[in-house]
Amino acid sequence: MSATIPTTEPSSFRAGDLLAWTKSLPDYPANQGWALSYTLINASSKITINASASGADFSVSVPAATTAPYAPGSYQWMARASKALQIVTVASGTIDILTNLATATTFDFRSHARTMLDAIEAAFEGKASSTQLSYSIAGRTVENLTPEQLIKWRSFYKMEVAKEAQAEKFARTGINPRRIGVRFTRV
Fold first, then answer.
1. Phi and psi based region of residue 113 (left: phi greater than 0; alpha: psi -120 to 50; beta: remaining)
2. Degrees (nearest 5) of the Cα angle 132, 150, 135?
3. Domain that holds residue 132
4. Distance between CA 121 and CA 43 in Å, rounded?
């Protein structure tokens, strides 16, 4: 049984996985000489992907070996159709490239909120590593924050971590912890 190929750009994919989708552009059909290319870019990396013609549509297929070295992170992407001297931006968005866990030797799976909360709590306990002390909040490092500011940020990040835990529980169980059901019965 073969997998169904999506007809839209993905919102995320894992480096080291096959990346594939098809794109239909009725105003710029592949069988009339149009080409389609994607540019993914962030502060440290730029990736170019060229689609191939598949009848009037375009097929994007990037092998796992090609995506393996892609740097993880959030990227802005842009799709452009071109024919001779005509170039048209046809779509844009964001995509997250996830870490290839099969080749990673270590991986910090914590969210930004959890990482910040851990750093702040380590600072309170006097156990902060030099890495934790170098975290920046609102343009200031943790070591330069006053105890009052640390308390404020700890409260903020505790709430953020709690929201993440609720969202994760909801995604896992389908049960919204913020929704309370009440049932009335006659006596």
1. alpha
2. 25
3. 112-173
4. 30
98, 131, 152 — which closes off a domain? 98
Residue 27: CB atoms within 10 A of its CB come to 8
**Do both 116 and 61 map to the same domain?**
no
Task: Give CA–CA dist 39/77, Å, rounded.
Answer: 5
* C-beta separation of 122 from 129 below 8 A: yes
- Same domain, yes or no, for 93 and 120? no
State the Cα–Cα distance between residues 95 and 80, nearest whole angstrom.
16
148 found inside a domain = yes
**125: which 2 tokens?**
């306990």
52-54: strand order across its sheet = 19-23, 57-62, 52-54
Inside any domain, residue 142: yes
Interstrand relation of 57-62 and 52-54 (parallel, antiparallel or unpaired): antiparallel
59-118 pLDDT, tens per residue? 999 999 999 999 999 999 999 999 999 999 999 999 999 999 888 777 777 888 888 888
Q: For residues 151 and 84, state if they share a domain.
A: no
Of the candidates 32, 10, 28, 27, which has an alpha carbon nearest to the alpha carbon of residue 19?
A: 10
67: helix, strand or coil: helix
Predicted model pTM = 0.66
**Domain total in the chain:** 2
